Amino acid sequence: MKLRVCFLWHMHQPYYKDPETGSYILPWVRLHAIKDYAALPVIFRGHPGVRHTVNLVPSLLVQVKDYVENGADDVFLSVSRKNALDLTKEENEFLLRNFFSAYAPTMILPQPRYAELFRRHESALRSLRRSNRGPGGYGASEYTDLATLFNLTWFHPLFRDEDPELSRLWRKGSGFTEREKNYVLDHQIQVMGRVIDEYRKLSRDDGGELSSSPMYHPILPLLIDNRSALDALPGAALPALPFSWPADARIQLERGREVFHDLFGSDPAGLWPSEGSISPAALEMASETGFRWAATDEILLARAFGKSVKRDHDGIPIDPDWIYRPYAAVTKRGSIPVFFRDHYLSDLIGFEYSRWDAHDAANNFIHNIKRIYDRLSSGKSGISENEYVIPIILDGENAWEYFHDSGVAFLNILLSKLGKLSSNIEFITLSDALDGIKEIRELPSIPTGSWIDGTFHIWIGHREDHAAWEMLSRARTLMESKSRFDSEKGKPESPDLQKARDYLLVAEGSDWCWWYGDDHYTPHGPEFDRLFRHNIKAAYKAMGVIPPDSIDIPIIKSDRIVQEKNEIPAPQSYIQPRIDGVVTSYFEWNSARKVVPAPGFGTMHRAGHMLLSCFYYGFSEDEIFFRFDLDNVAVENLHDIELEILFPLKSIKFHSNMDPMSRRFHYSIVKIGDPGGRMSPPEDSSTDPDNVRAAYGKVLELAIPADELECRNDKRLEFFVTIQIAESFGERWPIYGAFSAELPGKNFTERMWQV
Q1: For residue 641, what are the CA distances in angstroms to 279, 422, 597, 686?
Q2: Predicted confidence band of residue 598 (pLDDT cuts 50, 70, 90)
């Protein structure tokens, strides 16, 4: 029996150009290009025994090309290029607010100067607000260092190491000149120029495969008819105005293929429909437009068969025979094979292994593959020896920033080991796997849904989503009426109407609604909201119509943005809970501040229950109190959970281990070593925990003396929380930065009395 494992790496960015300014307003195409887009093919080339499929979204490709060939700019790049002595107060604030947009443990804290600026940036912002004259905040040299380090840290280690000057600057770490800063920025564009060539080499010389997606990454079933959300989730709340423009879905597919052909000289065989979103109509359209295969998630395979994917305690499917194979989706106008990703294995790479030792992670993945092979080979299905396929499909860009070295060690170890496995286990492209299958069974039914929960809730389930869809529907309906008017008069579609269509195609992308609602959070939510509305506004103008005033009103709610700034107000009053691990009475935590962490996976989404349900924060005159409520479903059958609270400005960490099964519990508080960001405390740094009181039962309750945290005279306390399952996945709250909790100060009683 042969088992074929197929990696598909999804590379995706929305179209960031603001039609009002002509500039890109977010930097993620540029920053990911100098990190993972260019580096992954280089890493893959070193392991010819494992071949990969890469999915390149066309809206990403056209932006890379625009930077390299046309000198495109983005707001972050233009501010970076400006001499620090010439920065305005607004530009200084922009730097302070945006140039720590990186995962702190792996991209900020390892650089002592960057870590120092990170720890001081909140106070610098407050200083800037108080400043009536002059820029304020940091000094000019600090702004130069900040701009240099932000742009330097986003380089993949491979590219920093291969360039002597970048390597020197990384070692230098601080005191950068304007010339050095501009070298970093210029070299970014040079590395961007390698991206498309690297993927050409991957497909032409390295045995890899390139696949495509719709042009601007829309949810195809919703473009065809957004009432298909009811097929995915009966009873789903829908916008008041329907949206049903199948022609737009076809244009998105066809334009994506055109961009792909222009850059790579051939048509893509495979389609990753945006967010794995399929429906009978969407797959029919994919087949008609020339795609040979499509892919989505196992949750939709389970729906097609009317049964769930059952796994053992190690995550291995108990009955794998029906899971690991492509199925033919037979539509009215053609058939197209569909691959279904192994959700568990894909998420191990995407979310879990960054927390593991690289060797342990690679060995675990190989162990899982071998166990699947053994389980399949012991079955009695009698199918052709070449029919089993495991699709590993995941985000190819965002996972790696959580690895301390951008995943270099893990990938090299894993791919090296995979290439030496038994010849009965092959690592090939999806098209090659398809060619090796003698018979493709027909899918019992074609489900409708996405890879996330099998529904479209994230993109159409919230009030903000509804407002966006209705705004889009009005503009699209108006454009259709104008187009029909020209057609009835025998006129070709005017260039202005074509421009309007282009703007609306951008607005149909999935990313704008990804950030509406409460499923995901980004500090750049207002920018995404503005891009969506500006594209619709530009469409009205192109049609010669005055845009409705409502388009200038943000859809994303300002109160939600404020809430997500990770600021925790002071409790309503002092509290004095009993630290016994049990909520003794309703009143002991009634006055505390309850915090429900917003999912912080950013552009990545993880299905399933989060470990932390919520936490509470409060204080008395002498102690700081925390209560952590874990999700009962997420932690059932778990024996070892590690919860830590790190107070970065105090270099103090609370560490605890909990066993939900036996209720065993132990804890300690440690003083973290030096101020350079080293997270491993010296062996003798554990303090006597007698002053700290903690208990775990149904909840974890904790009391830390204010003097222990040296915060009695402070106005705010900054901290973040990590929760880790032993040798498995975990969470960090918040995903970036820290919570900033208000402390009582000197006049708390008087302030509360006045309130």
Answers
A1: 40, 36, 18, 20
A2: low
Residue 412: CB partners within 8 Å, gap ≥ 6? 43, 46, 47
Amino acid at 216: Y
Q: Are 649 and 679 in contact (CB under 8 A)?
A: no
pLDDT at residue 309, rounded to an integer: 94
Q: Strand (E) positions, 163-292?
A: 209-211, 270-271
Give the tokens for residue 114: 């960057």
Residue type, 347: D
In sequence order, the β-bridge partners of residue 630 are 612
Maximum pairwise Cα distance, the chain: 86
Q: Which two tokens stand for residue 247?
A: 């022609």
Bridge partners of residue 3, in order along the sequence: 388, 425
What is the helix, strand, coil percentage profile of the chain, to 5? 45, 15, 40
Among 129-138, 286-295, 385-394, 584-593, top mean pLDDT goes to 286-295
Please compute Rg for the chain using Cα positions: 27
Amino acid at 52: H
Cα–Cα distance for residue pair 541/566, rounded to 1 Å: 38
Run of H or E including 9: strand 3-11
DSSP 614: E
Report the DSSP beta bridge partners of residue 295.
Answer: 339
Q: In what order do the strands lie in the sheet with 693-696?
A: 593-595, 612-619, 623-630, 700-705, 693-696
How many CB atoms sit inside 10 A of residue 689's CB? Answer: 17
Residue among 190, 186, 189 nearest 169 (CA): 186
What's the pLDDT at 133?
54
- Helix/strand/coil for 123: helix
Tokens 């705010």 label which residue?
A: 716
Place of tokens 């210029």: 186
At 366-405, the pLDDT tens digits run: 999 999 999 999 875 545 566 899 999 999 999 999 999 9
Q: Is the pLDDT of residue 636 over 90?
A: no
The span from the CA of 596 to the CA of 604, in Å, is 19
In which element (H, E) is residue 619 found? strand 612-619
Kindly state the average pLDDT of the residues 235-263: 97
Model pTM score: 0.80
Q: According to the 3-state scheme, what is the secondary structure of 313-365?
A: CCCCECCCCCCCCCEEEEECCEEEEEEEECHHHHHHHHHHHHHCCHHHHHHHH
Burial class (CB in 10 A: 0-12, 13-18, 19+), 482: middle
Compute the distance between CA of residue 430 and CA of residue 433 in angstroms, rounded to an integer: 5
Closest CA to 536 of 525, 526, 524, 548: 548
Closest CA to 233 of 243, 221, 247: 221
Structure tokens belonging to residue 341: 């990703």
Amino acid identity at 255: R
Q: In 3D, which of 78, 106, 621, 83 has the Cα closest to residue 407? A: 106
